[in-house]
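Person: I have long wanted to understand how a fold can be written as tokens. Underneath my words sits a plain record pairing an amino acid chain with its backbone structure tokens. Those tokens are not coordinates but codes from a learned vocabulary of shapes. I should like you to check that the lines agree and flag anything odd. The protein I mean follows directly.
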Amino acid sequence: MSDVPQTKETLLRILADFAVGEDCDCDALTKDLQRALVEFGSQTPNNLSCACHVEFGRVGDRAGLMVRNSGLLMEELAHALEDQPIPTGMKQLHGNLTQEDWDAFTRLTTLIYALFSRGVTG
């Protein structure tokens, strides 16, 4: 990941602008987000794939980061992970991780996605 403050600030600005904005051009903002993700994270295959699979969009009365072309808000996806057991691979990597630690991580993840989402009307 880039240590250049400008790349971090750009990514945070895009997320914050969406979260507090009224209406927006989701397609244009998605392109800005994708570019900022790669600039911040670098052009590794994982980061490029991530950038290609996210978008800003709306589902019902919520708008936020979404899995591209899925109708699924990442906030909802993160929320679905809450209260799930620690994945086996994670247990193998971090044997000292407790269920309470995992629950705190998944809750924080949901809250972060909620932070960059918003309610919409009309």
Summary: The radius of gyration is 16 Å. Residues 88 and 94 are 10 Å apart (CA to CA).
